[in-house]
Amino acid sequence: MDKNFEELCYSCRTGDMDNVDRLISTGVNVNSVDKFDNSPLFLASLCGHEGVVKLLLQRGAVCDRDRYEGARCIYGALTDAIRDTLLSYDISKAVDVKQPFATHISSMYNDEGFLKRDISFRVSNGQLFTAHRFLLCARSNILAEKMVTEWADHEIVSIEVRPDIFEFFLKFLYLIPILHQIEPGQYEELIELSSKFNIELLPEFLDKARHIADPTEKSRLMSDYQYKFTEVARSQLLVFVNNCILRSTVDLVDSERRAFSLVNCLAYPDIQLAVKNRNGSTQIYPCHLAVLNRAEYFRAMFINDFKEKVTYVKAKHFTGKYNSVIPELTLPNCEFEVAEIILRYLYSDNTDIPWMYAVDVLLLADILLEDRLKTIASTIITQSKEFIQQHNVFDVLYLSWEIGVERLEQFAAKFIAIHLQELYNDPEIKRAIVLSSQRISLRQETDTIELVDDIRYYLLRKYSFEPDDVELFENQDDLEYLKQVGYLEYRKDMEMVDNILADLELDV
């Protein structure tokens, strides 16, 4: 069984919604089952994690009351709220509309503002449809080939197809849920058009759907395929980033090659992203504003009064027909590997972040105002054994305070509690407690210190105690029993905390 799927099941049992989100972004099949025939949705439902249940449903998990798996989820739901959520979820609706990646790609189709479309299609009745070359190239190898051959010098392409069929076709490429809108009489032409351009899965779905009369069965089919469509698109855009963007990067100093690359770049960029690393080298990445604006940092530059942060570079248009001015953005200084992780995330929702770059990704995501990526990067840190072996836990704690990531703060407090006896003589633990005490505004004598509270909480967890257990043990005289249950070790840890506070003259 896939390791990521095993981890997904575990996170669904424990309610770790951040990690569930990260794992789904790696392409894990949310409708698979483990060796006990438990789906992630069933585990989250059974264990009472309502937030995880909702997230799974939004990401494509199917809960059909007419199927064994769906009925099992509903019957096993721990709370009425979860049961109501499962019962109210209409599988005939598109399951991907709330997924960040699919939502953004769909928004590119509808946004008529500053998101540049660079090719138009004139259909049979003369109606024009506009699109982004780069997206069409990513979604179809045949469309990509036509862009560099017969359509290379065309801003408007004529195509013999009915407008309703082409509209469905184009919306599908932009991940807009259209399956429930297609009428049986439109199936044949849509199959022919999508097969002509080698569009994955759509002809397969339509061929199956036209032989199904039962509305419920057709809804199931739509739900299953909508998830597959999104995963295929993510995979295609990841290939596009790797092959057409990252392979087309040039050094800032190589101005001749830079101008040449804009003319011949198969990414069809409308913006250049400049990145300087710590060695002072600068790379230029050919990118697309339609994708970069997924990060609020970039979006703000173009919709607010921050255009002074954007420089403009004259370059020949990729068609070779006229000169164009291509804006250039500068990403905050970082290693090229980190910039490429950010681009893979923005373009394809890829969250494959090596642990050695997790902190840099976290810091850059904070600057980009990309909260979801911050959460995913922090999850990588807390899930990586290698990371904590190479980094000081107190650095993690201070980082969590600096950029406001509660998950990291809790991770650090838990680590300190588990390893308290090893860290007791480390002067950094006293410094951390003092800094935590200073984070309280207008501190009163009776105020607690958040880090101390967290350490005490995780000490209870370390020994699997409840507060009532401690009160019971304090009145127990049987030392052998107290040693056996772990209370004496717990008491030793608590005395260490009290000693540190006494040395610091902090009364909490």
UniProtKB/TrEMBL annotation:
Keyword Repeat: yes
GO cellular component: cytoplasm; ubiquitin ligase complex
Gene3D superfamilies xref list: Ankyrin repeat-containing domain (1.25.40.20), Potassium Channel Kv1.1, Chain A (3.30.710.10)
Domain of life: Eukaryota
Extent of the ANK repeats: 36-61
Keywords of this entry: ANK repeat, Repeat
Residue stretches making up the BTB domain: 117-174, 269-355
CDD domains documented for this protein: BACK_ABTB1_BPOZ, BTB_POZ_ZBTB_KLHL-like
Pfam family, one: Ank_4
InterPro entries xref list: ABTB1, Ankyrin_rpt, Ankyrin_rpt-contain_sf, BTB/POZ_dom, SKP1/BTB/POZ_sf
Name of the protein described by the UniProt record: BTB domain-containing protein
